[in-house]
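Reopening this one. Same input as before:
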Amino acid sequence: MLEVLQLQFFQHALIAGIFVSIACGIIGPLVVINRMTFISGGIAHAAYGGIGLAFFLGISPILGAIGFTLVIAFVLAAISIKRKERTDTFIGVIWAVGMAFGVILIDLSPGYNMDLMSFLFGSILVIPTSDLYIMLVLDILILLFIGFNYRELLAMSYDDEFATTMGVPVNVLYFILIALIALTVIVTIRLVGLILVIALLTIPPYISEYYSRSLIKMMGLSIVFNLIFIVAGLYFAYALDITSGATIIATASVGFFLNFFWNWARQRI
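Same output, byte for byte:
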């Protein structure tokens, strides 16, 4: 393990893993409690359209994905507020359209970039220093947002109608939360890929919920579980020479089922 830490690309992957653990560990519980998993999945897959657009225009894939995905996220937020009964349908449509749009634009782009697969399934070899700075900025934004709006988010998450009557700007917080989910998805796809990113937003919070009596504790445990799964997954991926994103999610899945059966057995006993 110590030999691996001397490799620069692995150091970048570990630093990225820490930043991603913080982002997903804080945003994930809000996704789970507010039942926004499907929305998050739609945002993640629609992000492929932004990556395709970036390749077509010859700009940074991350910057292209951020701009495109934020637009998609705000559209989904507006729809889910106005037409809650049809939200799942619109998410499914945007999910498919975003992926199709990305594939077409990539086909129209001159040449073929092998780096593209890293956006689908993640890679520990392609995390540049610039992405680490973006991840750091995102973590700071998330921490500031949670720090200043924790009580309001808590009220919104458990009873949005009551929160509205108490003067909490629920719609504004909802749009900001959707935007942070979109940004979290974008910075995480380098590590695990957009196909698998939703797992880091849901598995650690689900496990943490068993051992938490408050939202803040759930966030803290989610960060810890994310970090464990990411570090272990990165090491196994390097040792076995396999895709990092799939290995991280496989590690998280093992933790998910171990926790599930442990709690099932404990209740039986």
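So the earlier flakiness isn't reproducible anymore. For the record, The chain is about 80% helix and 0% strand.
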